[in-house]
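[agent] plan:
  1. take the single chain provided in the ticket
  2. run structure prediction with default settings
  3. attach structure tokens to the ticket
  4. add a short note for the reviewer (M.T.)
[agent] executing step 1
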Amino acid sequence: MTPPSGPPPPGPRVAAATTTPTTTTATAATATTPTTAPAAAVVPVVPAVPVLPAAVPPPRLLSHPDDPIHLTRLVCLVRSNLEAFVSTPDDLSSRTNRGGLREQITPGRVGIRCVHCARRPPPPKERVRCAASYPRSIRLIYQSVRNWQRHHFWGCPAIPMEVKEEYGRAKKGGIGGKGGGGGGGAEKQKRSGNESSRYWERSCRRMGLVDT
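[agent] step 2 finished; step 3 output follows
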């Protein structure tokens, strides 16, 4: 899943720069008397490691002002704690085998990650699985977020306690208001079901994300 190349580029796939290996030939000076010049010395130039351009698009929160119209208050809260980002070599080098790595991710791939872990990375021994994921399509972003809720949210040491408390109240229906988690069982089910999943896909495309 990568964003498009047209402006504005909220998260374009940035192709790794490539460097063509070259060789530099240093020719020894020829004296006036010898009849045969010494062989030229070949000095190979080691190609640089492919890197991303400096102007990698900044991460963007998944949340949007229209979220409360289509989503429950709980889902709105979840989206405000996640961001889409364009992966760099540093991001990929920090991946671990916790939870299993099923595919090779290359720099420029768009991922979803916990904003708190991104701002205040916990020590390696305290890292919790699903801090970042790389959905293969827009349709799978919603499932990646569900996995974040299930496997990461409560155990993440970087998420402030007040955010967890607000999450708990929203889950129990303690936060009212339009699109809230309490009351209106049929409406709640509608917002968290078919309409919700369609809105997730529309909002991703609005950010500029596309499947490739």
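[agent] step 4 note for reviewer: The first strand starts at residue 22 and ends at 26.
[agent] ticket updated
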